[in-house]
Amino acid sequence: MKRLLSILRIALRALRRNVLRTFLTMLGIIIGVAAVIGMVSIGTGARVQVEQQIAALGQNVIMVMAGNMTRGGVFTGMSGAPTLTLEDAYALRNEVDGVVYMSPEVRGSEQVVAGNLNWNTTVTGVSEEFLDLRTWPLAEGESFTEQDIRTAARSAVLGQTVARKLFEDASPIGAIIRIKGVPFTIVGLLTAKGSNMMGMDQDDVVLVPYSTAMRRLFGQNFLRSVILSAGDAAQITNVTAQASELLRQRHRIQPGRDDDFMVRTQQEITEFATSTAKVMTGLLGAIAGVSLLVGGIGIMNIMLVSVTERTREIGIRLAVGARRRDILRQFLTEAVVLSVAGGLIGIGAGIGVSAALAAQFNWPTLTPAYAVVGAFLFSAAVGVFFGYYPARKAAQLDPIEALRYE
What we know:
The structure is a single chain. By secondary structure, this protein is of the alpha+beta class. It is 56% helix and 18% strand. It has helices at residues 2-16, 19-55, 86-95, 130-133, 146-150, 160-167, 210-217, 236-250, 266-309, 311-319, 324-361, 369-395, 399-404, and strands at 61-66, 70-71, 74-75, 99-114, 117-126, 138-141, 155-158, 176-179, 182-190, 205-209, 225-230, 261-265. Strand 8 (176-179) and strand 9 form a beta hairpin. Helix 2 (19-55) crosses helix 11, helix 2 runs antiparallel to helix 12 (369-395) and helix 9 packs parallel to helix 12 (369-395). The two termini are 35 Å apart. 38% of the residues are buried.
């Protein structure tokens, strides 16, 4: 231990001889580590934000969407075919084991009028279980009931954005709005959800009973989608398989034929949405990691120069009894000190840059512990790897030739 401390003191003394050169040598490591941490923080923050937004859909959610079809050579696209019905929705609710909540869904973009103000928003027809399914609490009032569904009641629940546009700061509870000329009584106000992963405002919505939406607003007898919620995550796979099999039977789809519906789980949506973020995080981290290698090459270059400059010093030390492994340890220690010090400064700089970007541009950033530890260990490894050759070269100098060196 005493010998190690002595070697460390000698290394620090040697590095202090030329502070500017020492700092410039560390600069490559500093920039490399800061870049790695900054890029990984941005990528991780974006991925976590997407995961949180998907989690806002609810717990253990399974989405059954109407499929696509071609009519007269025209491709209708997802949810473009009238392949889901209310009977399908209630069959899924009653015949699939593990389903806790179910809500049919129909929607359309409509102009909503309140007094002399109006706002174009998304009107969505859902069941009384929708708010429980989405874990979406109310800020005021109450939701519509099963009785409202059966009677196609003209009740509405507003999102925060619609309430603000139509009623400003006043409470909308009990007020009347008109959708396509049909009056609706506002019975509830949703809490704010913010934007979803596609950047769409989730609060820009009006919820009405699906029966009312189908009969009075959209005049349709088919559904856009059916949203299910499983009892727990372990049941999702089983519920998904049962739902697919049940719908194939109800729609009389023969073996080998494509489904006219799509079933997507929350996990699939999360994996799809975050896959790009994961790839970009890895790519940006790898690109930033190249600068660490460049910094390591800089350390090797400076250490080789240092060996040349200190040839006579090495010769004197060897002549007075220093062993070759002592010389090796000294120069290797100098290289490691350079890389470790640069790594520590780089970690601070990377975290600072991440925080600055988050504050300046409102970017979601999150610095994971593995990025900090990994960058530090990598910077230390760079010092060992690129410092070994110059240290070995110094240790192999011939004492007599080194003493003659001018």
